[in-house]
Every structure is written in structure tokens, then in C-alpha cells.
Amino acid sequence: MSSPAPAGEGPAPGPLSRAHRATTISIVAFITLVAFENMAVATAMPVAAEALDGVRAYGLAFSSFLTASLLGNVVAGPWADARGPRAPLAAGAALFAAGQLLCALAPTFPLLLAGRLLAGGGGGLVVVSLYVVVGAAYPDAVRPRMFGFMAAAWVLPAVLGPAVAGAVAQHLSWRAVFGGVVPLAALVALVILPRVPTGGTGVLDPTTRGRALRGTLLAAGAGALQVGAEDLSGGGAPAVVLTVAGAALVAVALPGLLPRGTLRAARGLPSVIAVRGLYTAAFFGTESFVPLFLVTERGMDPAQAGLALTGGAIGWFTGSTLQGRSLSGWPRHRLLVVGGLVVAGAIGCLVALVLSGASGWLVVGVWALAGCGMGVGMATTSVLTLRMAAPAERGLASSALQLSDNLGGVLGIAVVGSVYAAVGSAGRGGDAPLFAGMFAGLLLVALLSAATGARGRAPGAQAPAPGSTTVGAP
Description:
Blueprint: H1 21-51, H2 60-83, H3 86-105, H4 109-137, H5 143-152, H6 155-171, H7 174-179, H8 181-192, H9 208-231, H10 237-253, H11 269-287, H12 290-297, H13 302-324, H14 332-356, H15 361-388, H16 394-423, H17 432-453
Helix pairs in contact: 1-4, 1-5, 1-6, 1-8, 1-13, 2-3, 2-4, 2-9, 2-16, 3-4, 3-8, 4-16, 5-13, 5-15, 6-13, 9-10, 9-16, 11-14, 11-15, 11-16, 11-17, 12-13, 13-15, 14-15, 14-17, 15-16, 16-17
């Protein structure tokens, strides 16, 4: 792997310079695989859920992946800091492939959810490990452009993934969509892993065991919260108990895993971490139900509905490229505000389209706008996190960032999923007002992300990284 250019030797070489080319190609290849899986699964999921009689629990297919990712995020940070990113990256790739295989073979929806849990745990390990590589291999001035390259890795899967996955799911089998990812994961891992460093501090953070326990409690709590919330419509006591117990576990476990002040949006790194979770709650809570809306309310087939995800990914790439080039001179905390406002505006337009009965094809353009806001904002949270974290704590800082990322997605999807499970028609149509209400609630979350982003500038000094003496109660 390449390393940062020493200070004082002129402009840092770009991501595709000789110094960084091997690192960049390796990272982009892995992100491309993750992107293809994301696009393909999201496109095929309406078909899989209907085939396995799981439409009413549709949201769990997405939030279960993110729930397991929480534990992977927590474990990967200190592991990568101490031993280097190769080991957690290898373990993550293996779990990811195993989960995809289980999904492909699942005879029931609960077993498909189990596969999503395995794949999610692996995904959590992979993403944090890649962030550690970026923090170590690229100087601060180059990281915005590198995050643009990582966003670019989503473009080809976004263009081809939904169309291919939709056609395969519709004319061959949805199982082939999941199974087709397995050999690709093995191939990419075999090519990339030899290029990933094994170094590290050699010292495992003394708080690691406690963090792992908190991560387990957090994942268990998030999972219980989702399952309970999905069943609340039945009015049974077990669903209420699960929901309350899950919420309590999340409340107990989360504070010790984030920088102090995150939950009250203290200035600097805590607000950056908080914004990340608000972004993903608003965006993915909405996006996970966009294909279902287009299929059930606008009569599109899965391949057509998947084009909305293509628009979102292309918009994301555009926004990420803008923050690394045209907007690179802007204060970073202002870009956090811009990202949130653009996402909010796009979701507002989506609500109007749903209520007006407009063509589903307009959703593709609107969702591209939402993706553009996410590209600007999400890349900015990554840049600021690596900038504010001490070099020896980049794994922990990246872990906290991804933890917020995934938990935001879990909660966003769980809340709207529980509403749909309680009130929706389970795919029979006539739910346009319900979809509009769900999306309107997430619009408020997007506006909150913009307000919090204004506090993303460190107050005079670097904000504390997670794992330092200032991590604890928010």
C-alpha cells in the first residue's frame, strides 16, 4: 500500500498517481462489489419478499443487514488499529459471501433474514477497514478526491445492477441475484487482500472488550426493536416488550461507543458523527421503500423500479465529485448543511409526486437529486472525521462514523417499516397516502441533519476521537 507524501515536497499526488494507484484500484474494486450487491438486492427484494410471503416484514430485509453491520463496525475499529486492516477485511469478506449464499438458498423469509445478518456483519467489518486504509494511505488534501473515486465505484453497478438484477429476478430467479454475488466476492477478496497492510500499533485498545460487549448489546437491541416494531400492529404484549427492551438496550449501549456529546450534537466531531446518522436515516429510510412504492402503486416491474436506485447512485457520485473539486474551497461544515438541505428538498418533491399521482418515472430524477445531496454530505463527514481523529485512533473514529451511519439507517427503516407493517396493504395497492406520510416524516429528519451540520466545525481544537478519555456519556 502507498503512504502519504512527506510534508514539504509539493502538492500531494492524486489518487491515480503512481504513489497511490494500486491502493485506489483495490479500494474501488471492493466498493464496486458492495455497490453491485446493494443495487441488485434492493431491486430483487420485492420479488423475494413476495415469493417467501414476507412482504409485511419487508423493511426487516434491509434493517437486519444494517443491524448486524453495527457489531461489525464496533469490532473492526480497534482490530484494524491494533493489527492493521487486512485481518478484519478478510473476515468481513468471508462473512459477506456466506450471508449471500444463505440468502440464495433460503426456503423461508426468516432464513433469508439470517443470511442478511451474516452479510451485514461482514459488510460492517469491510467498510471500516477500508476507511482505515484511506486514512493511512492518503494525505488530507487528497482524501476528498479519493472519496469521490469511492462514490464513482457505485456508478457502473447503479447503471447495470438494477436492470440486470430486475431481469434475472423476473425471468430466472431472485435466488440467482444473491448467489451471483458469492463468486464475485471471493475473486475480489483474493485479488485485493495481498495488497492490504497487516501493520498497526500492535497494542489492542484496553477498552476493546467493553466496546465489543456494548456493540453486541447495541445490535441485539436494534434487532429486538425492529422485530417488535414490525409486530406492534398485532397489539400483543410480546411485541411491546421487545420494542421497549430493544430501545432500552440501544439507549444503554450507544453512548459509550460514540464521542462524548454526539447525542446532543456538540460542536466538532460529535456533530459530524451525529449528522452521518441523520443523513442515512432520512435517505435510506426513504430509498428502501421507493421500489416497493413504484411496483405496488405505479405498476412498474422490478427492473424499472430499480432505475430510481440508479438515479440515486449517479446523483451520489455527482455530489461526491463536486465536494472534491468545485466545492473543495467551501468550509466543510457548510457542505454538511448543503447536503442535508438538498436531501430534504428531494424528499419533499417525492412527497408531492406521491400525492399528485404523477408518473413513477419522475421519481428517478427526484431521487438523483437526493443522491447528489448525500454525495456532498457523506463524503464531507468522512473527510472531517479522518481530519479530526488522531492517526492512531482513525480506526476508532471510523468505527464511530460507520456505527452512526448504520444505526441511522436501521432506525429510519425500522420506523417506516413498522408503520407500513401496521397500516399497509401488504403489496395490494392503495397505499399512496401512507407512503406520502412515511416520506414526510423522513423529510423532517433530513432538515434536522442540515441544522446539526452547522455545528460540524471543531471549536478551536481537534474534537476528541472515540476511544479517548472523553468518550463516554453524551
